[in-house]
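Is nicotinamide-adenine-dinucleotide placement plausible here? Inputs below.
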Amino acid sequence: MSITKICCIGAGYVGGPTMAVIAQKCPHIQVTVVDLNEERIAAWNDENVDNIPIYEPGLSDIVAEARGRNLFFSTNVEKAIDEAQIIFISVNTPTKTYGKGKGMAADLKYIELCARQIARIAKDNKIVVEKSTLPVRTAEAIKSILDNTGNGVQFQILSNPEFLAEGTAVTDLLNPDRILIGGDTSVEGQKAIQSLVDVYANWVPADKILTTNVWSSELSKLTANAFLAQRISSVNAMSELCEKTGADVNEVARAIGMDSRIGPKFLKASVGFGGSCFQKDILNLVYIAKSYGLNEVADYWEQVIIMNDHQKRRFSNKMVQTLYNTVADKKIAFLGWAFKKDTNDTRESAAIYIADDLINEQAQIAVYDPKVSSRKVLADLDYLETRTSEKNSANVTSFSDPYEACASAHAIAVLTEWDEFIAYDWQKIYDGMQKPAFVFDGRNILNRVALESIGFIYQGIGS
Ligand code: NAD
Ligand code: UDX
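Reply from A.M.:
I modeled the complex. Tokens:
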């Protein structure tokens, strides 16, 4: 089947950038991204392309090129489903906050709603693509909902997980390590796979497009995230041992990364990984393993999360200890709130948990992040429900100028690795601070020797 119309349900961090790149690379295909969130769709349609709701380097240029040509953002979900030959489901699949599997399993209610809506609206055969990250065997449930509509429409379900990382989404989408497409082994299933392969083949080399059965594809996504997060927890575990022994975790990471079997990537010790995926997907994996009675498998992967929580807590404890065991009424400047550089996403950012711990100790937090609004900072803290919103507002202030954020602070915590932090006038920052002036570098990005020569007391991770 030659594809001319695609729809994507969910205009978030995955749906938006992924569809923008498909539209750019396939001008012959009309791509419509739909979402229930009117504010988000309005922002995607904002005349000023710099106001699109997701910050990703290079994304606004692509949206500017394709929007209105063959890329459309809309709240009219039904129309888009009706017209499309391929429907991507790219809605959120957060950790369940209620009922069975609370705190572990993926909440599939948004997925099921999409499946029911597609079943209700579709009048001709459709290919439905799981773009969201889903537990292995979810396609079975989607298929069951779709096949029981009784209106004779044939559906093929494909799994096509997304491997982009935020902050590098555009380059990841333009030059993916691989595209994974899982489908049914039947003739119809193979035809559906080929239709999606043909879409990606517009810019992805054939040898990077991998096809598998549906279950392998679904499970590969959870496995990839578990392996990546495991490397970070492994190096973070070593960072604590380094601090006790005089070894330097940066040197250890470099030494082991030169072993071609280990490789240099994802070995950066940090205050702990954040983001919307790693924790959610590993918890989901743990839940799935437990549900099959595989307790050793579940315990093995759960340790990655336990280590990450420990690393965050260890960082805030160390700050309090170093600051003479009290941070009450002290101003602590946070450089960075996003979970990594080059994104405005703050989901599960380590900064939120460090702030929460320090507010418990009655610190005054001054936040500067180049892309995160003060409203978002407070919303993130309120979401934890540790204390009232008024109390959070009383203890946290956001600044649009980093030097103001650091002025008269007792300490600075670097919590995101934004490049601009490295280029700051650190002498000026030092001059404006309370003495002794401390820097807790949760990303190991600053030049320790230079800062110490200015007079800072510097503490990195793992050295
Ligand atoms: P997101 O929260 O940014 O976006 C999801 C969007 O779906 C929201 O805007 C929401 O309003 C919309 N939505 C929910 N239900 C809907 C419905 N019934 N109809 C229309 N719109 C609906 O989430 P995201 O970060 O884009 O993640 C989406 C999926 O992709 C998740 O399963 C996630 O695990 C996976 N994923 C995310 C990343 C990432 O880096 N963020 C990477 C790979 C995979
Ligand atoms: C991740 C996966 O990388 C991506 O393939 C998947 O599609 C979605 O989940 P993302 O969470 O966007 O992507 O960013 P990633 O670069 O993986 O970073 C996640 C967290 O780990 C960040 O907080 C980052 O700062 C941290 N990290 C990463 C480290 O602490 N050390 C590292 O060496 C690498």
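Short version: The radius of gyration is 24 Å.
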